[in-house]
Write a structure and sequence with these properties.
Blueprint: H1 2-19, H2 33-41, E1 50-52, E2 61-65, H3 67-79, E3 83-87, E4 90-94, E5 97-98, E6 103-107, E7 111-115, E8 146-151, E9 154-159, E10 163-165, E11 173-174, E12 179-180, E13 192-197, E14 200-205, E15 208-210, E16 215-220, E17 223-228, E18 231-233, E19 237-242, E20 245-250, E21 253-255, E22 262-266, E23 276-282, E24 285-287, E25 315-321, E26 325-336, E27 341-345, E28 350-362, E29 369-373, E30 387-401, E31 407-410, E32 417-431, E33 460-482, E34 487-504, E35 514-525, E36 533-535, E37 542-543
Parallel strand pairs: 1-3, 2-4, 3-6, 4-7, 5-8, 6-9, 7-10, 8-13, 9-14, 10-15, 13-16, 14-17, 15-18, 16-19, 17-20, 18-21, 19-22, 20-23, 21-24, 22-25, 23-26, 24-26, 25-27, 26-28, 27-29, 28-30, 29-31, 30-32, 31-33, 32-33, 33-34, 34-35
Antiparallel strand pairs: 11-12, 35-36, 35-37
Amino acid sequence: MKNIRTRRQFLTTTMKMVGSIPAFPLATGLVGSIATMNALAAPNIPPANLLDVKKFGAKGDGKNLDSPAINAAIDAAAEVGGGTVYFPPGTYLSASIHLKNNITLYLEAGATIEAVDWKVMPYDFPEPNQEGGNYQDYGHSHWKNSLIWGIGLENIAIVGNGLIHGKGLNSGYNRATGRYRDTADEPGEGNKAIALRECRNVTLRDFSILHGGHFGILATGINNLFIDNVKIDTNRDGMDIDACSNVRITHCSVNSPWDDGICLKASYGLGKVWPCENVTISDCFVSGNFDEGTLLDGTFKRSKPEYKSGKVGRIKLGTESNGDFRNITITNCIFDECRGLAIESVDGSHIEDIAISNITMRNVANDPIFIRLGARLRGPNKPPIGSIKRINISNVVVSGAEGNYAMTISGLPDHPVEDIRITNLRIESQGGGSKAASALVPPENPAKYPEPGMFGKVPAYGFYFRHVKAIEMDQVKISYIKSEERTAMVLEDVSDAYFTALNIERGQDEAVYFDLRGVSDFSVKNSRDIKDQQVKSFVKSLKI
């Protein structure tokens, strides 16, 4: 009883104290007590220097152009060393918004920044980029032609439960033809929702992006980037993290039917080779097959008859790969009706020390796992072929994987993918492959754009390994739904392959578990219905 009375006295005293706190007085550019208390409750939102965009002339009615008032509020905050620019509920029609040092944009729930049609108000023109713009698609090489952009800044943030709607942005993608327009936009067009270049200490948290254009978020050359609880429902890439270091992407949801969901890159867009390193992607959801907008409204529809999705929406490392990728972790993520996980070095990058764990995938549109070392070699002075090594993949569950594909790990002759460890996988394929397909020898296509399907049909329904050195696999179960006559695993030009504790459903009509094509130092042990075998010396052809 004494403890109960003590707690009651404490609560009563606390409520009296809260009730006695006076409202903050209104002043030019400052909001009152409600917004201030919201700011106090939100992490990293300071209780002072809250500048309300409406105090600078913004209407928030979705009819009048508000970007001049928004930029005036940002300028005012920057003049006093920084602050928080506050968007109360409303729709703020806008062209380019210019971030500055030590500025936070705070989007209140119910606040929408809406991209205006460029013919009504042009966006900032893309900056010249002759040095870095010749070795990747146009969209990766320019930042100013965006709804919100910042270059060379520090300590910036966009937070709050509001919405960024890229209604007037150009994606460069023609759904009818399935082709991308990656040449220059019309002068004044905007094509990205948020574009940041060479900034430090960036936080993006809690807001949503609808219809983000070519990129919902393009972050290039950023050091210390934190993206948390951001929802993106868009018409092309969700977020591209290019040549960035020290990145945390957590609790994000991305629906991007026509392009990648979360994509790490190391392009030459900055005119130099920069790595993408020290990155964690965790607790995220990616999809490529919901009607645009239905991730955000929570209906998750796939109903529109005219809706033609490429079912992309995946997590990918590459394709732009001039710089190295290293020290990257992807964990606790969900893939739903999209392409699988891709790791691609084709422009000379070295990809190493990658850990992937606790992944679930349903109805994957192609290879659940696709690792490719290629030789497109797009870069100054034609860079040498790169490498992929030290990749750990564990605790992955896949169901309903497209039957024409397999898990593919493919290097190049004399340039193998190296040191791959795969453990605790459960793979269910749709199946349906023919016996004739088991005899296929896919083309090498060294310079071709890396993408599942680039080799045509593959001879395996489970895993296809080519030009690989040091592969270990343990505790893996593979099965199919429809009748499958292909080989479960095909190894071509592979050395040092060690398989244990496999549970593989063998294909029909005398299909085999393994087809070894130019393999040495191979071992399989303790696997269901597969006799323990070791092959030390080179074998040109052997079926197990």
